[in-house]
Specification:
The structure is a single chain. By secondary structure, the protein is α+β, with helices and mostly antiparallel strands. It has one domain: Nucleoside Triphosphate Pyrophosphohydrolase (Alpha-Beta Complex). It has two helices and seven strands. It has a four-stranded mixed sheet, with helices on both faces. A three-stranded antiparallel sheet has the order 3-2-7, with no helix packed on it. The chain is globular, with a radius of gyration of 13 Å.
Amino acid sequence: MFPVSIKGVLILPTDDVVLALNDRNEWELPGGRIEIGESSNGCLAREFKEELGIDVEAVNLVDTYLFEVMPDKHVFVVTYSCRLIGQFNPVVSHEHRKIATFPINDLPDNLPIGYANSIQNVFEEFKPI
């Protein structure tokens, strides 16, 4: 059995995506482990609030896959597209080194391929008009 991590792709009106730099020096999608009794939407909203201090809601299921975080350590990732509720004024929590936005066509090299694929899927298939 693997831990489940709910991740969110938040694309801003500028077509920039929100990423967080973790302790492994990798950019990742905001989100985290789902808690017992918590819905996926509730987990995503809680994690964005804890990690960035912003409010979001899950919109569409985008992707699911098994991610090898480190050798022999796997996490089952569930990715949703997100909608921002209110203002985008992120604050870096203790869980990350940095929060930044990146243009869809210029994602950082140290972004795992699964996250990059989810971002492209959201941009191509689920982006609100």
